[in-house]
Amino acid sequence: MDKKKLGIIAAGAAVCVAGVVGYAAFGWKWMGRTTGLNLRLASPDALIVTKSLSSLPRDLLTIPLARDVLREDFVFYYEQHQDRLGLSGTLRRIAYEHQLGWGDQLIKMVLDEPAEVALWRDGDGTLKHFAIAVSRNSFTRLLEEGGKVALKDSQMTRAGEIRVDGDAVPVFALAYAYQRTMLFAAHGKRMVILSHPGMLFGGEDGKTLNSDNADAVINMLAAEGKKNASFRDQFQLAPGAVDGHSVAVKADYLSFGYQPFFGGLAAMRFDFKKGQWSTSALMDAAKLQAGGYDNGALWPALPHNPAACFALPADWAAMQPVLGNIDSALEGVATQFAGPAAVCWYGSSRLYSPLVIATRKKGSSDELLARLFDTAVGDSRRGDVKKTAGKGGATLWQRSAATPLGAQLPTMAIAGDTVLFSPDAALVERALAVGRKQAPAIADRLADSSRTVGLIAPSALSELIRKETFDALPSSREPVLRAAADVHLVPRLEALKKYPPYRLVLKSLPRSGASWQPVEWQALER
Q1: Which one is predicted more confidently, 279 or 36?
Q2: 329-335: which pairs have CB atoms within 8 A and are 24 or more residues apart?
Q3: How far does Cα 522 stand from its chain's mean position?
Q4: What pLDDT shows up at residue 380?
Q5: Mean pLDDT over all residues of the chain?
Q6: How far apart, in Å, are the Cα atoms of 166 and each of 138, 147, 187, 218?
Q7: Which residues contact 450 (CB under 8 A, 6 or more apart)?
Q8: pTM of the predicted model, to two decimals?
Q9: Helix ranges restricted to H, 273-358
């Protein structure tokens, strides 16, 4: 095979890796015109380090719950998705027009290579944008030859140039389907693929190089060493190959941007090794010292059978500036609290109305918390906050609030040192009943609640998902989507119900610095 053919194969390999695995993991859509995306490539939201990208979807199905819910359709969907088929068609056309002798086996060959996949959230919060870095011999030589051929092709163009270790490195763009374009570049043994041109170029003409993001790409393309390990360093991942898969996601992404309020938890990691998945949490000892992470006081105050519930190491001091911006008189609210906080969703309520619980310090001011509730909840034109005395010495504050989903009755309650809040007044009442020993608590089923950081009840969760989905898809207005949900979603939700509740147990805490700590999934009796 001559160099020209090898070049085209290398260029096709770049596209295969990005196209197939990128969409297989999370999906993307290029919204037409090449505009900057306002991403910071130096700081990804998630990182996948894998021995074989092609095996990741099937290895996810080794988890029994995932296998029953996603089924083999999960793998088939991504293998037969229109974007992958369009990508394959583009490569076939290039191969045919340039008289090359390779076919679809190229996709399988490339996807079996070790790789790193960094992901960033889009404006809608989904992990839509990605960069894939792979190491392989002779990338530069092959892409030089491939570039010569690609410049004659209608779907491949030279988008720009960056400098890596003093060398000029061309950046190529491939338009492989309608409103689908990706970038790729290579230097030495390294190749980087970007899912969207706006990750590197912007400006009014869509061709201006973003210098900060270019530096991140240059680091990814640099020779083996500290520079191209910058992503792993952010996630505290060891250098070198992995025997399986390692998927790390920053807590800031998982919490919709609220992670600064519980800085002790930096990220979550899921590892696949020797046929088994495991979970770890990246904990920062210095930030944990502010509030601790002993959850023993939370679970006895929460109603049993949540769909999902998570306790977080709250950094109350970090909330002071935010509260001060709302109302200068509220700056002292954060000093009223101590220890972790928890947020729980229940199948009897709605996704938008979780129950939040925290512990206040002894001698704290009710008036200050009442002011916070008055400032943050509802519209004073709908009436004043109603303060009432509840059973067992509890005090409740309520105000009717108009929302796009109808009128709500947000409620805050203080019972002793426990502070409760929910847009659903019924959940607060349930929690107060737990405090009066008139209803079962989550802790009744936990042998050791202090290190329990989360609970998931698949059966209650399935009911919550069903309720939210069907309310969003009324059969009278969305007959097609509702019929699809009935056929495809309902059987999977039924499969969820057979699984017992699980609790997540953080086995240990770091003594200093930031380090990964094991998290165990323990099944509870129904």
Answers
A1: 279
A2: 329/368, 329/371, 330/368, 330/371, 330/372, 330/375, 332/368, 333/368, 333/369, 333/372, 335/361
A3: 23
A4: 59
A5: 80
A6: 18, 20, 11, 11
A7: 294, 295, 296
A8: 0.82
A9: 285-288, 320-326
